[in-house]
Amino acid sequence: MATRERRLDRARWRARRALNTIGEELREARLQAGLTLRELTGIVGVSPAELSRIERGLAPHVGYETLVNVGAVLGLDIPLRAFPNGDPVRDAPQLKVLARFRTPLPAMLRHRTEVPLGMPGDRRAWDEVIDGPGWSLPVEAETRIRDTQALRRKLALKCQDAGVDRMLLVVADTRHNRHVLRLAAADFAEAFPVSGRDALAALRRGEKPSGSAIVLA
Hints:
By secondary structure, the protein is α/β, with parallel strands linked by helices. Helices cover 49% and strands 14% of the residues. A hairpin with a 2-residue loop joins strand 2 and strand 3.
């Protein structure tokens, strides 16, 4: 929960900063165009009071379409795009998958959730890290596999950047996921050479699996 709250706090701060910056740029463009707030209101259909709040960054619930319309009148484009910025916060189904995965494992193993990769400025995190006697093993959970190639690339890059030589991919035991894994078995074989059964057997003994594995849970 602490990780989720930190992410939301950062998101709110970035949103406030973005609205402040956009407001300042809109005000500067309006002044350069020689328009008053009332004149701009007549063009975009937003009240002078609301325009004033937007310019001062005091309209936290302003719609994106409103900002785009005001910007267009003033000769400004206000693009909106989504960029990767760390891993998504785990949802309830993923947490249930991890809980099922842990059930048969011995109490001697410690489980840490949402563990950062540890690289400065990198917000990615492992869904879980298992700590055993003298070893650690990162774990990723997937409730529904969609793009197998994208998933393999993401996990390979994560392992490379974190400097780990093995991990567990815990997948929800559903008909869809079993079907996808059968179809992509050859593609996953090199990256996950150890069977899920052997990996679980090693963990039950309190040992680290000899390589990466896919486990259904």
